[in-house]
Amino acid sequence: MASEQADQALWPPQKAVPDLTLTFENVFFDLIPSGILIMLSPVLLFHYARKPVYVRPSPLLWLKVITAVALVCTELASLIFRAISGSFRTQTDLPAASLDVVAVLTISVVVYVEHRHAIRASALVGIYLVFGVVTDIVKSYSYFNRPGLVAMGTLAAVSGALRAILLCLQEIPKTKSLLDLTLAKILGSEATSGFWNRSLFVYLYPLLWAGFRGVLDLSHLGNLGPEFASDILFPQLKQYWLRSRRVSRNALFMCCVYTWKLLFVTIVLPRLAQSACNLSQPFILHRAILILGDENVGNLERGLLLIATVCSFGGSVITKMTTAHLSSRLNTRIRGALISQMFDKSLRISQSEAKKSAAITLMSADIEGIADGLPKLYELIMTLLELGFGIYFLSLFVGESCFVVLAPLIASAIATYFLGKWMATAFAGWNKSIEIRVAKTSKVISQLKAIKMFGLGPTISQYLQNLRADEMVASNKFRGLQSISVIAVLCAEYLTPVVVIAAALFWNTFNGKMTAATVFPSLSIVVLIKDPLSLLLSGYPKMRAMFSCFGRIQAFLNLDERNDPRIVRDTAATPDSQLLGYDNSSIPIVEFSGAKIAPSGTQIPILNDLDFALMPGSVTGVVGANGSGKSLLLQGILGEVELMEGQIYVSETSVAVCGQSVWLRNGSIRDNIVGSLPYDERLFRAVIHCCLLDQDLELLPGGAEYIVGSGGSRLSGGQRQRVGLARALFARKALVLLDDVFSSLDRRTAISILFRLCGEEGFLRELGSAVVFCTYLPECLDVADQLIMLDGKGHASIDVSEHDREARMEMIRSLNPSQVAKTEEDEEQEQEKIRLSFEQESKPAISSPEPKNDVRQKGDASLYWLFLDPMGRVKVLFWAFVMLLASIGEMAPDVYMRLWIERDPGNDLYFIGYASIAVVACLLFVAAIAVLMVNLMPRASLSLHQQLVNTVLRATIGFLGTTDNGVMINRFSQDMTLMARTLVIAFIRTTSVFFTATIQAGIIASGASYLAVILPFIGIAVYFIQRFYLRTSRQIRVLDLEKKSPLYTHFQETTEGLIHIRAFGWEEQNLKEAFRLLDDSQKGFYYMYCIQQWLGLVLGIMSTLIAAILMSLALFASNTTSQTAVGLSFLNLILFAKTLEQLINSWTELETSVGALERLRQFMTTTAVEPDEGYMEVPGNWPSLGNIQLTGVTARYGGDEQRPATLKNITLSIDAGQKVGIIGRTGSGKSSLFLALLGFLHYQGIMKIDGIEVSSVQLDELRARVVTISQDQIKLDASVRVNLLPFTLNQPPAKDEKKKQEAERQDIRLQELLIRLGIWAPLNVNDKGRLNAILDDVGYSHGQMQLFCLARGILRSQDTGSKLVLIDEATSSVEDEMERTAQMVMGEYFADCTVLVIGHRKSSIRGVDFTVELSKGEVVHVDPNAPDMGEGGFR
After folding, report:
1. DSSP label of 713
2. What is the DSSP code string of 1017-1055?
3. Which pLDDT score is estimated for 831?
4. What is the DSSP secondary structure assignment for residue 1428, as one 8-state letter?
5. Do 340 and 287 form a contact (C-beta atoms < 8 A)?
C-alpha cells in the first residue's frame, strides 16, 4: 500500500507500489505546465485580438464550449474534493488544483477566441491538451492506488476524457464555417488542419493513397494557402530589399532573414527539443546496462526506463520532423519570393541582358542550391550547443579524455572550410559552363533545319559534344574537390571513436579494464557529437554554395535597369474615344527634338539631329536603305535606345507594336491576339478579318484555339506575322508601330492588309490611331500622310508634300516592288509543309501516355542500365563490391569492440585491430567515391549526351517543325544537369546506405535472442512503406519538374518579347501570370518536402517501436541478452531510424533522377529520325561536274506509301554548268525538289548526281557536298570567320608558322569577298574585331545577313570544289542595287557550277539557261528562253 509520508517527498517514487509520489505529480503534471500555459496565453490572445473574425459560429464551436465548460466544472470539483479531503494530502495539492482551474478557464477562453479568429488550431492548445490527457491517466492510476481517493481518480479519468474530446474537436478543420468563401477555396488541407494533424502529417494520407492507387495531377496536391502565395511573398521581401544596402555581400540573404525572422527563430525551438531527446539516449543506455547486471532493481524503475526510451526516441522523431517541416516552409517562402523578384527584375532590364540564360539557371540550379544549404545554418548553431553538452556528458564516462573528441573534428572542420571555399568557386565555374553550354545549344536547336540542309550535322554534333566535354572538364575541379572533401568527413565519422578510445586507454580512464556500461554510452555520445558535426562538415560546402547562389541572384537583382529616355506629356483623355488610353488633343503624340540615339547598351549614335513630330491619327512611313536605322527609330519611340542628346516627347507610353521578328507565346491563336486584355468577340472577329486570318482559322485544327508552338513554330511565316499584327490591332492603342510587317507576306495579301488598316476607311483610320510603319511596298505612298526618309548616314528628313515630284520619285526608286520577301505560292507551300509534317509526327504520340503513366507511378528498373552500361557492367559490379566492403568496415569497429570487451577487456593490444578496421574502411570508401565521380560518371554523362545529340541531329524536318524547342532544350539543360549532379550522388548514397542499413539491422537483431524474430517483420514493413511512399514521391517529383517547365518557358518567352510587353504596357499582367505559374510550381516543391518528412516520421516511429521491444526484452527478460549485446544494439539503434530514412530518401532521389533518364529514353525512342545505314563511299571531289539526272522520281514526306506524293514522276536532265530556274505556283513542289536532292524526302525512281544515286550517299555527306543557300539563316555563336567557314568550327587555332600564313591568306580572301558584297564596313568600324568579331555583335540587318549567307555558300563551293549549288531566295530582303551586285558576284563565282534557283521573283532567275515549271509536283513545262538579264545574273 502507498505511504502518506512517502507522498510528501518529490523523489524517489513509492516503493510499496509501482507509482510516483503525489508531490511529484502535482509539481510536474500540474504546477509547471499550468503556469507555462497561463503565462503564454495572453500573448496568444493578444495575437488573435489583432486578427479579424474568420469563422462564423457553428455547431463545432458550441461543442467546444460545452466540453470546455464541463472540463472547468470537473477541475472545480477536483479542487473542492482536495480541499475537504484529508487523505494523502500534500503541501502542493491545493496550489496544483487551484492552478489547474485557472489553466482550464484560460484554455476555454483561448479555444473560443481561437475558433473565431484563427483558421487553424494553435500548437499551444494542442500540446497542453495532449500532455493533460497523458498526465490525467497517470494521476487517475495514482489515485486509484490510494485508499480514499477513488473519487479523485474518477474525476481525473473524466478530466482526461474531456481533454481528449476537446483535442479531437480542435483537430477538426473549420473550412466549411469560414466567412470568406474565396478564402475557403484557396486554403489547402494543411492550412486548416489542427496542430497534431499537421505534426503527424495526417492531412497527407489522401494524397499518398491517391498516388498509390493511380496517377496524380496538380489538382490532387491542393492549394498551399495565402502564406505561400507569390503575390504576398513578393512585396514582403521587396520592402526589405529596397531599403537594404545592396552592395553588401550578403544583402539579399539578410533581407530574407529580416523578412521571415519569426520563422527563422521558431525553427530553433523544436531543434533544441530534438537535441535534448538525443542527448538523453546515452544515459538511458547506461542505466539499462547497469540494470541488466542488477537483479535488485524493481519493475517500476524498469518500466520508467522503458517509458523514457519511448519518449526519447519518439520525441526525437517528432521534433526532428517538426524542425524539417518548418525549414521546408521557410525554404518554400524564400523560393517563391526570390523567383518573383527575378521575374519582376526581368521586366525592368534591357532585352539583351534579359535574354541571357543566366536567369533560368538562377531559378533552377541556384534556387536548389539555396534549398539544400539553408537547413545547414541550423546545424551550425545546434552543433555548437550539442558539442558543448556532449563533451561534458562524455567527461562523465571518460574523464579528461573527452576533449580529444575535438581533434579529428577540428582538423576536419579546418580542411572542410578551405575545401568549401574552393568548392564554392568550382561550383560557380561549373554553373557558368552549364550556362554557356545551354545557351549555345539553344541557339543551335533554333536553327536545326538550316544546319542540316547545309550538311553541318557532324560538325555541329562534335561541337555540341565538345561543349559537354568542356563542361565535364570544368566540373572536374568540383568533383575532385568533392571526392577529397569526403576524406575530411570520413575522418570525423570513422576516426573520432578511435581517437577517444585511444585517449581513454592512454590516460587509463577505464581503470585498466573496459566495461560495456562505460564504453557503449561513451561511443553513443561520440556518435551524437560527431553525427551532426559531420553533417555540418559535409554540408558546409553546400552552405558556402548557398551563399554563392544568393550572391548570383543578388548580382542579377542589382543589374542596371532600363532607363526610359522619353519625356511623357500630361494630357487629358477624351472620354468617348474607342482607343484604350487615347488622348485627342492637338499635342503631338511623338516628338523628337534634336535627338541623337544609339542602340541600347552602346554609346555610338546611329541617328543624329532628329527633329520631327507625329500627330494623333496620322499615318507615317519610314523609308531608307538596309541598315539605315529604320528599326532603331521605332525603338526610339518605344524608349528602347540610348539618348545621347536632345529629347523624345511622347503623349502615350502604351504602344501597339509588330515587327519583323514576331513574338508569340506557346499558346492558342486567340490567347496570342487577345494578350492580357479582356476578350471582345466583336473586336476579335474584326481584327481577324482585317488581317485575313479567317480562312487560316477554318483550316487549322481547333481554329482560334490552335496552339502556335514555341515562337509560332507551328505557323507559317505569314501566319505568324498576321497573328502579331492582329494583336496590335486588338490592343486599340493610340500609337501603332509596324516594322516591316509585310516582309513575310505575299504581295497581294500585303497590299490588301495595308489598305484595310490604313486606307480611307481602314481599321486604324477609324480608330484614330497614329501609325508609323517601315515597308518596301510602294503602295505605302498612297496611305501615308508623311514620310520620314533616312539617308543611311545618320540623318532623317520628313516629307509631307504630296506634290514634290522629285522626292516622290526618289521614294519609288527606293521602294522596289521586287523587295516583297514572299510570294503567295511560297507562303501557301510553307503552310502545306507544316500540315504535312504535323500529320507525320502526330501518330506516334497517341499511344505514349499509358506506358508513361505506368513508369511514372511504378518506375522502370531497366532505366538504370542506360546510365550504368556506358560505365561498364563489370566495373560497376566491382565498384559495388568495394562499397560493400567499405560499409562492413564502417560497422565492424563496434562489433570488434563487443568482442574485445567480452573476451579480454584488459588487453590493450586489441586497439590495433580496432583502429586498423576504421582506417581501411575510410580508404576504401574514398577510393570508391573518387573512381565513380572522376572516372565512371563523366563517361556515362558524355555517352548519354552523345546519344541525345545524335537523335536531335538525325531528327526528320517534320519532327523538328512540330516539336517545341523548349522540349529539346530541357533535355539538354535540366535532364543533363540532373544526371551529372543529382543522379551520381543519389546512386552513391543509395548503394552505401542500403549496405549500411542491412548490416545495422543484423547488429540490432543480435541484441536479444528473441529480437531476431522481428527482423523479417521489419523488412516487410520497410518494403510496404517504400512501396507506398515511392509511388507517390515519384509522381510528385515529376509534377515538380513538369510545373517548373512552364515557369521557365514563361520567363524565356518574357525575355524574348520584353520590348512587346513593355510597349503594350502588359508588365503587371505578365507578372501576375508568372505568379500563377510560380504558385503551381510551389505545390510540387513543397509537397515533395512534406512526404519526405512523413516518411521520416513513419520510419522514426518504427525505430521507436524497435527500441521499445529491445528495451523490454533487456529489462524484463534479462536472460535473453547480455550487457555488451544490448550496448552494441542500442548504439546502432540510435542511428537506425536515420539510416532507414536516408535509404528511402536517397532511393527516392535516385528514382526521381532516373526520371531524367526516362525522359531521355522516351525522347530518343519516339523521335522520328532519318536512316543511317547502307551508304557507299563517294569520290573526294564529288560532285565535280554537277550533272543531275532524274527519271520517274516520285517523292513524299515520310516512308508511308499512303501519303500523298509531293513530287510525281519527275524526269529531268540537267547538264554540267547549266543554270536552271525552278518556278511554279502554290504547292507546285519547288522546295520539295530541293529537299529530295538533299535526301530529306523518301523517293522512288532514279535520282543521280554525277552518276551516283542520291539514296546511296550518306545523308550528311550528301548535304555537305551540295552547296545550299536557303532563306533560313545560320548564325553560330562564334566569330565572323568561323561563320563564313562553319566546317572549321571545331578546328583549333593555327600554331605553327606555315598554318598561320595560310590563315592570313584565308582572311584576305574572306575580306575581299565581303567587300565585294558590300558588308565589310560594319566589321571595320569601332574596333569590332573584323573577322574575329562575334557575329551577333556585328549588328547585320536581315538583308545583310542574307548576303553573308551567300558569301558562306561561295566559300563552301570554293573549298570543296562542289559544282552543284542550290539557291532558294538568297536575296529576298536586299534592296535592288545590292541584289544586282550579289547576282554579279554569284555569276562570277558559280560560273562553272550547275545552279538551281527557286524563282519566287523574276529578278532572282535572271540569266538562267532555262526554267522548269512545276505544278502539283509534276514538270509541266521546260522553257529554254531565259528571262532578260539586265545587269547582273548568272551570265
Report:
1. T
2. HHHHHHHHHHHHHHHHHHHHHHHHHHHHHHHHHHHHHHH
3. 54
4. P
5. no
